[in-house]
Amino acid sequence: MSHKLNISVAQIDCVLGEIEPNLEKHYKSIEQAIDQKSDLIVFPELSLTGYFLKDAVSQVAMSDHDSKLDRLKELSKHIGIAVGMAELSEKFEFFNTQLFFHDGELIAKHRKVYLPTYSLFEEKRYFSEGTRIRAFDTPFGRLGMLICEDMWHPTSGLIQAHDGASIIIVSAAGVARGATQAEKPQNVIVWETLNRSMAVFTTSYIVFVNRVGVEDGVIFWGGSEIIHPGGSGIQQAPYYSEALMQAEIDLLELKHARVNTQLLREEKFDLLLHEFSRLSDQKREYK
Question: Which of 21, 59, 171, 187 is buried most deeply by CB count within 10 Å?
Answer without folding.
Answer: 171
